[in-house]
Hints:
The chain is of the alpha+beta class. Helices cover 34% and strands 34% of the residues. A four-stranded antiparallel sheet has the order 2-3-1-4.
Amino acid sequence: MIYVIAIITAKPGHREEVIGHFKAIVPAVHAEKGCIEYRITVDADAGPFAKVGTDTFVVIEKWQSMDDLKAHIGADAGLQMLAKTEALLADRVVHILEDA
């Protein structure tokens, strides 16, 4: 199984707009071959633990195979979403992981 943790930081004041673009493609991503999970997460009010921050959110993905993830990376929904949000992002860090 392949896991993707994408830490997305929007430019100040644009987080909700960027999250909206991500949420809009969730159904299309869920329909892609090999998609097990694709969700947008934000900080929980959980006491003294580290926060990702006010302008940041984390996308958590699970894919059946690396080939499925590669197909997702080139899929229309994601490419269109990236085109809409590129100017709104301050930073994007993507980690691709697999079971140890």
